[in-house]
Amino acid sequence: xxxxxxxxxxxxxxxxxxxxxxxxxxxxxxxxxxxxxxxxxxxxxxxxxxxxxxxxxxxxxxxxxxxxxxxxxxxxxxxxxxxxxxxxxxxxxxxxxxxxxxxxxxxxxxxxxxxxxxxxxxxxxxxxxxxxxxxxxxxxxxxxxxxxxxxxxxxxxxxxxxxxxxxxxxxxxxxxxxxxxxxxxxxxxxxxxxxxxxxxxxxxxxxxxxxxxxxxxxxxx
Length: 221
Fold this sequence. Notes:
CATH architecture of the largest domain: 3-Layer(aba) Sandwich
Helix content: 40-55%
CATH superfamily of the largest domain: HAD superfamily/HAD-like
């Protein structure tokens, strides 16, 4: 049985993907460094904060503007997808307790969704590699909305697609922009501990409604 601190009557749970459902944020900084290195550019220290929450297309536009890369956004996205594909399938684990938590949600007839700024191709790959693709009633990606996080669009569209009111939704996010997006959509938010976003822990705790290190903390045995 699952219980959420401070809220009852939950009908749907949405997960951000990277850093919230899967432990993959380390991978993206590595890819950024490798990709920029192809052009003789060192990744700046503020890059992760600057692109956090952006869709993959928005990130491509940002790279073109900031770093003067002349490849098309489509070419950049293809390169990133190729670089990330192998790591997602072979090196990225689920966050602690996530598998058990998903099972309990399904047992309680709570609808499940993924709302990520990542691409659909990579999202499908990582979910399928862990055998959990079939758990989700809806998957929304950065390809499906015009404005990425911290805009609330992706969460509003996700809830509307399964006909659940925002106030009956719980969201799990690992970065401030994601938390802001879910709160702006009128949803209840749990912040997930993640090493990559450790510098933002204080802000995450202030913005969110509760905090977890392991999804099993929410399972009453």
